[in-house]
Amino acid sequence: MKTPTSATVDLFPAFARERRWVNGVDIAFRVGGAGPPLLLLHGFPQTHAIWHKVAAALARKFTVVASDLRGYGDSDKPPTTADHAPYSKRAMARDQLALMRALGHDTFYLCGHDRGGRVAHRLALDAPEAVRRLMLLDISPTRTMYERGGFEFARLYYHWYFLIQPAPLPERLIGADPAYYLRVKTGSWSTQGAPEFFDPLAFAEYERCFTPAAVHAMCEDYRASASIDLEHDRADEAKRIQCPLHVLWGEHGVVQRLFTPIADWREKCDGPVSGRIVPSGHYIPEQVPDLLLVEMENFFGS
User: Fold this and answer.
1) Total structural domains in the chain?
2) pLDDT one-digit tens code per residue, 121-168
3) Is residue 159 one of the residues assigned to a domain?
4) How far is CA 149 from CA 119, 133, 199, 258, 296, in A?
5) What distances in angstroms separate CA 21 from CA 10, 15, 40, 102, one per listed residue?
6) Is 1 within a domain?
7) What tens digit of pLDDT does each residue of 196-230 get?
8) Do the Cβ atoms of 62 and 36 come closer than 8 Å?
9) What end-to-end distance do the CA atoms of the chain give, in Å?
């Protein structure tokens, strides 16, 4: 298959860059290291490049798979449907489960940030036999955030309501100056209001991948979250995460300000739930990578 052109070759020098056709889509990913398998899933509006500050160290103890979600990075951006099902977290989770199985990993550790955390949550519900341990970064459950967020949440997470507007409204507005939107959006989630902590190569990767097709797919991701994903969550009210769960969230973030992550996730889990607040904004893997690395090695290595 065609190898994507990507700046991440400089961010993951010891990792192989691969693609696999799974679940009806072509998924791009990086893989490196040796040891128990660990799947890393990124969030909006980024790519697997978010893990570049921790990947090499993790690869000393784990077989690390850092994947681009469908619709993001160099992964496929399939056509959508009226119910947004191709961008449901269930569909995205099936991609990642199929990828890990294609790589020979029937069970694995799993860590997701932002949207990747929501995919990871669904994967743990739909395939509990596959996920050994689960770590989630800077999120509370989607349904909890929609139902309990209120006015302040709508103001601070306006994009949850903007991106779900019918196509092509958000796509065309973002498309007027996508580089500007990307910088403003990422800056609004940082500690100081500017993304100064991003490695220039990583941010160049986010800009490269912020194409019209990706913007549309990202909007579909959010449209699915406000519709079919909530339907799946309601239908699966009795399903709960079975494995140990560890949650980290930033002290300067909206999750810390408006939600109670440990309590929120205990409502969704039968397994033990642990976690802590960390001195960062939303972008934990890039703002406090050393701290995250310790947390991951302790949790996944135990």
Assistant:
1) 1
2) 999 999 999 999 999 999 999 999 999 999 999 999 999 999 999 999
3) yes
4) 20, 28, 32, 7, 29
5) 25, 19, 18, 9
6) no
7) 789 999 999 999 999 999 999 999 999 999 999 99
8) yes
9) 37
Write out pLDDT tens, residues 9-67.
689 999 999 999 999 999 999 999 999 999 999 999 999 999 999 999 999 999 999 99
In degrees, rounded to 5, the angle at the alpha carbon of residue 75 between the alpha carbons of residues 32 and 121 is 75
Stretch (H or E) spanning 182: helix 178-188
228 contacts 88 by C-beta, under 8 angstroms: yes
Residue ranges with strand state E in the chain = 16-22, 25-33, 37-41, 63-67, 108-113, 131-137, 245-250, 273-278
Q: Is residue 205 part of a domain?
A: yes
Position 2 in a domain: no
pTM of the predicted protein model: 0.95
User: DSSP letter string over 217-241?
Assistant: HHHHHHHHHTTHHHHHHHHTTT--B
CATH number at residue 247: 3.40.50.1820
| Residue 107: strand, helix, or coil | coil
Domain that holds residue 24: 7-301
The answer to whether 28 and 67 have CB atoms below 8 angstroms apart is yes
What is the torsional sign of CA 217, 222, 225, 226? Answer: negative
Q: Which amino acid is at 33?
A: G
Give 187's contacts (C-beta < 8 A, 6+ positions apart): 193, 194, 195
- By annotation, the residues acting in catalysis are 114, 282
